[in-house]
């Protein structure tokens, strides 16, 4: 009897908590505090959003088979090199299960921003499209969630004002 009552109470609590759990695991939303994330880069660096406060953070989701991803990588590489000292952090993230380092050797030049081969549950390709880019301001607010490749001009117009904001 007691066992049945405890099971019913547990079921009610689980049903009551389900909407909260689903809301907490939904996608990142523009204008709200960016959901936390944690991953390890290919060079074994542990990255957590909470450690990046005061910086502008760019998360670029890409794939090895994606032409637009490959096309925007050199631009992002150059932008990162130029603006990293101003508080820009950029991460290229793919969820492909292949050895990404061997693929990167095919690119002309070396990417200077860190790469990761992981899934970030709250940062998924928008509409299933790659590249998808998420940009978080210095206060930790998600300012941009965009599917598709950036042109250099559009990227500058998007990120330059965020870098100009006081930390």
Automatic annotation (TrEMBL):
Keywords: Isomerase, Redox-active center, Signal. Residues 1-23 form the signal peptide. GO terms for molecular function: antioxidant activity; disulfide oxidoreductase activity; isomerase activity. InterPro entries: AhpC/TSA, Thioredoxin-like_sf, Thioredoxin_CS, Thioredoxin_domain, Thioredoxin_ResA/DsbE_sf. Residues 28-164 form the Thioredoxin domain. It comes from the Bacteria. This is Thiol-disulfide isomerase/thioredoxin. It comes from Sphingopyxis panaciterrulae.
